[in-house]
Structure formats: structure tokens, C-alpha cells
Hints:
Elements: E1 18-22, E2 28-32, H1 34-56, E3 58-61, H2 68-74, H3 80-87, H4 89-92, E4 104-107, H5 111-119, H6 125-149, E5 172-174, E6 191-193, E7 200-202, E8 207-214, E9 220-226, E10 231-240, E11 247-248, E12 253-257, E13 268-273, E14 281-282, H7 284-290
Antiparallel strand pairs: 1-2, 3-4, 5-6, 6-13, 7-12, 8-9, 8-11, 9-10, 10-12, 10-13, 13-14
Helix pairs in contact: 1-5, 2-3, 3-6, 5-6
Amino acid sequence: MPIPGKHRRKKSGPIARGILAVGAGGAVVALPLLGATGAHAAEQSAPAAAQSAQQSAKTYKVVPGDYLAKIAAQHKIKGGWEKLYQDNREVVGGNPSLILPGMKLTLGAQASGSASTASSAKAEAPKTETKTAAKTEAKAAPAASAESAATTTKAADSNSTGWTTPVANATVTTQYHASGSMWSSGYHTGSDFSAATGTVVRAVGPGTVVSAGYDGAYGNEVIIKHADGMYSQYAHQSQLMVSAGQTVTGGQQIGLSGATGNVTGPHLHFEIRTTPSYGSDVDPIAYLRSHGVSI
């Protein structure tokens, strides 16, 4: 004989968001909506991820004398000027050497990167990620081209001693010691070479970079000390690709020509000096010829 008593109903755990349905045997069954809840949460997390990525990005306003390598170094951009250019290609345009005062550059997180991060949090992430990856790969290609253009190059017309002209197809537009009131010394202290903005500027011979940066009327300049104790100067560049203390070889790319400083148009101002300072100039064309350069 069964012992009389009350049947204790088993406690059921909490069910998040469910509906009640009557089964075939009359039992009440709870059907949770966990899948819908998870998807809704993921969609809510996407804007938060995008907002977080946007907050980590900073905006920098370009000032006179700036160039991408300088900005990247000052703000410690991982990936250097190539990454900075890649992130701001739509602002800078097709020429990484030509940035203008007033341009606003994004430092750090990129807008497209934020969107990619947010989309990965959604339930339908696979399709979105595929599109984002393709877009990122397409944008990376121009940056790779810019990077390859910035790599060290040897001049095809350099001589056997490793000396060459500061630009290829060198054409002098203003001779050394040309007189005129436009120069503070009363005469031209170097030789000007025809060079459109973005033309490769190269070291005329082996040596060590003693300075690389902005220098007033000369704009962005590089000064190199050579083994014979003489110094070569390359002024008005749009972008510098070497730094002080770096050893260079003849024909190695040191920057890109431009129109920074006190100029009327893009060109390369080139000097040979007995010291790194202004006022110690000698005839640059005669110096190059003494090293076997045909010009």
C-alpha cells in the first residue's frame, strides 16, 4: 500500500524570455528565446564597439614644416609614415609627399577599422567581415606602392665611385653665385635643380646625415657629411626619409622634392659647404665634377 502524502513539485530554474505551449499530453512546456536574446545583445554591443574605437582615435592638424615621417615619429605611430598615409589616404590624396597646412589627419584608430570592429560583434558577422577584409586589402595596395617608392634606390646614372647628381636627369635652373636681391647674401649660395614635387632626392655620395628637419627659409632639408670633410645640403623637400646619425650611400634616396620654406615653386636647392652652417658654400657643380660626376 502506498504511503499517503503530498507530491513535491520539482523547482525549475529561471527561464529567460520564453513562451508557454501546451503539448500533446496536456503538459505545459516553456520554449526559451535564447537565440533571439543573444542576437539582440550582439547588435547592441556593435555601436558600443564602434564608439570605443572612435574615442581611441585622435585628430592632428597639419602645420607648416610638417611631413608624414615627422608626424609619425612625434606621435609614435606604429607602422611609421606608411601606416599614417594608409589611414589618411582619402585626405592626403595620391601623393604622400604633399601635405598642406590645415589638413586634419587621424592618428591611431581608423574610421573603417572602427566599423570593422563593430560589425564583427553582430550575429551575421561572416558576410560583413568578408566585405570589410576585401575593402581593407584594396586600401592597403596604394600604401604598399608608396612604401616601395620610399625604399632605398640606387641612381642608374651614378658613376663607379658611388657619386651621382642629387636628382635624376639633372637640369640646373639657377646657377651658383647668381646675383639678385631675393637672396639675403646678395647671391645664390647653391645650385637649383628642376624637380617637380615628389621627385626622388638622393645623396650625391657616401656619408653620414648630420641633420634632417625644418630650417626656416630652406624648408625641409638634409645635410650630409662626406669622408673628405665636405657637407652637402638638400633643401625645400616635401618629405624627408633619413634622420641624423644615419649612414647613407651615393645614390640612396633621402627624401622627396617639394616647395617648403621660402620658394616660388617646387625645386631642389643643393649646396656644398666646408661646414654644416650657412655661409661656407663652395661651387657645388665643380665639386660633383671633381668626384667624376658628369654634369
